Structures are given as C-alpha cells and as structure tokens.
Amino acid sequence: MKHSALCYVVRRALVSGRNCNCHGSAVVRPFLAAKIRQRSFCVDGGNGGFFYWKRMMASQAGPSMPEAEKKEESPRTKSGKSEKNVVVSSYWGISKPKIKREDGTEWPWNCFMPRDTYKSNMSIDLTKHHAPKNFMDKVAYKGVKLLRIPTDVFFKRQYGCRAMMLETVAAVPGMVGGMLLHLKSLRKFQQSGGWIKALLEEAENERMHLMTMVELVKPKWYERLLVLAVQGVFFNAFFVLYILSPKLAHRVVGYLEEEAVHSYTEYLKDIESGVVENVPAPAIAIDYWRLPKDAKLKDVITVIRADEAHHRDVNHFASDIHFHGKELREAPAPLSYH
Ligand SMILES: [Fe+2]
Ligand SMILES: [Fe+2]
Fold first, then answer.
1. Which residue ranges have biased composition labelled Basic and acidic residues (predicted)?
2. Per-residue model confidence as pLDDT tens digits over 19-65
3. Which of 50, 130, 141, 259 is the most exposed place for a label (fewest CB within 10 A)?
C-alpha cells in the first residue's frame, strides 16, 4: 500500500502536466489520462483506478468536459453511482455559465475568468532599483545575487527554460505572505488593509506566468524533480523568514523581482536578435493579457516583464512600510496592481 502511494505521488509529480481546464489543452488530456489510468492499474494492481477516479472528479467541471471524456465516463454512469454525482453537482448549483469573449466567441478557460484579465501597464519604469541602505538591505541584495550564480550556471542563456523554472519559485512568496497575513488577521481580530488579497493576487499572477511558460517550454523529468526539491526547501525557508522578519522577506522578493526584470530583458534581446524564435503567443496568454490575436512571444515576454516590475515595486514598498515601523495594514494595499 505504501509502495502504491509512493508510486502514485512520484508518477503524478512527473507525468501530470498542465491542468488549466481549458478546451484547447483538454484535447490531449483524455489520451494522457487514459495512459495514466492504464499505468495505475498495471503498477498498483487496481489501486491506481481509485486515484484516477478521484483525479477525474476533482479536475473536471461539467460543462467544459470534452466529448471524449464524456464518452469515457459513460460506463460508470450506467452503474448508477456516477449518475448520482452528476445530480449532486446540479443540486448544488455549481455549473459554469455561458461566458463569451468580447468578439462573441465562447470563453474557453475554467482556470481564470474575463474579470481576471487585464491590459498590462507598460508605462512602468523598468530601471528602478532599491539601493541597499542598511545591513538588512545588503543581506537581501547579496543573498539574491548569490542565488543568481547557480541559476546562471545551470541555465546559461536558456531563458525560456530558466523563466519557467523560476516562475515555480516566484509564485511562492505571495502565497506564503498572504497566508500568514490571513492567519494574523484571524488571530488579532483586525483588518489586513487589503494586503492579503494583494499578495494572493501576486501569487496568482506569477502562477499564470508559469501556466504561460509551460505552453512554450516542456519541462523535462529532471526539471520536474528539481522543482519538487526547490519548492520543498524554498517554501519552508520563506515561511520561516516571513515569520521572523517580513521586512527582510519583502526586500528579498523585491530584489528577486529586479532580477526577473533583468532576465526577461535578456530573453527579449535573444528574441530580437533571432536566437530565440518569435513564435505565436499561446492562447492562454492572449486571453489573460488581452493581447491581439496575432500576438507573438515577444509581446508575451514584454507584458510578463512589466508584471515583474510591478511585483518589484509592491515588495519594496511593503518592506519600506515595515522599515518605517508601521504594519502593512496601515498603508494602502496595491490591489489589482499589475
Ligand atoms: Fe513571474
Ligand atoms: Fe514577479
């Protein structure tokens, strides 16, 4: 049983890929799902079927389920048990309304709604830098510069792969900060000043960067393993750091975002010089950033870089608030600041 569970965790981490619940990417999912189920039954002697069933139930929203998957569901529907689940889902009123794009076409995404999309503010100053003023700033700055060394060695100028991997880390601080502020708000019976939402918005925005990059770069098995290890270490390290000193934690993120702006600038240089092909933008990026239908990779990287500059400003601002002896809730939270 333990062996089966371990196999499942490793397989799920390495085999499962995008899970954005869109019609486009769902086209390949029935084949992948069938493959996973086949392997589950072979390796687990039947236990994998249970996990597969759970996965299907968790990840599928009724109205968006493609025809191929509906057909796959039908044998279980005859048994009566699954039919009950469909009725229960309908009973709770959880169904996706028909949503249209501005041009009248059907909205294909379940992972984000039109209200979550935005036009990137391209007027942001990309050159801004927080000069380290005190000991804590210098620790944060030097620490981030040190972290950059192994990244440069590992990825060199493979900026696509580098961006994809670093986005798996970049989406962690906002979630940790938002979660800790949420718990603090509950503990102290006080408002957060909007900062919980602001930090969670940042985490979600970073995750959308990842969902975009993974459409462009397919992670290899050892990169997936690396993400598992890095996430385990980084989440816990940042969690402890945020509890000990949110001022230092936000400053570290501010400098990480400065590095992200630099990395995406280098990525753009490679696209402009032809080293990296300026391929058409993924559909998810066109809808999320409201880009023109004929947008290219260069347009996507440009808006992602603008997002990173916004994150830089938010986190340096948050650190400055703490530096002045205030709490975040005492300053206006940068909500919907992209
Ligand atoms: Fe990002
Ligand atoms: Fe960022």
1. 67-82
2. 445 444 433 344 334 443 444 333 333 333 333 333 333 333 333 43
3. 50
* pTM, 2 dp: 0.77
- Which amino acid is present at 51? F
30, with CB counted inside 10 A (0-12, 13-18, 19+), is middle
Tokens encoding 203? 């985490």
82 domain residue, yes or no:
no
Q: How far is the CA of 308 from the centre of ligand 1 (A)?
A: 6
Alpha-carbon gap, residue 197 to 208, rounded angstroms? 16
CA neighbor of 234 nearest in space, from 256, 216, 217, 218: 256
CATH number at residue 140: 1.20.1260.140
- The residue assigned the tokens 């139930």 is 57
CA of 206 to the centre of ligand 2 (A): 6
Q: List the domain range (segments joined by +) for residue 309.
A: 135-330
Task: Report how many domains make up the chain.
Answer: 1
Task: Round to whole Å and give the CA distance between 32 and 28.
Answer: 7
Separation CA 54–CA 109 (nearest Å): 22
Chain position carrying tokens 């230092």: 248
In a domain, 176, yes or no: yes
Token representation of residue 22: 């869109």
187: Cβ contacts below 8 Å, ≥ 6 apart: none
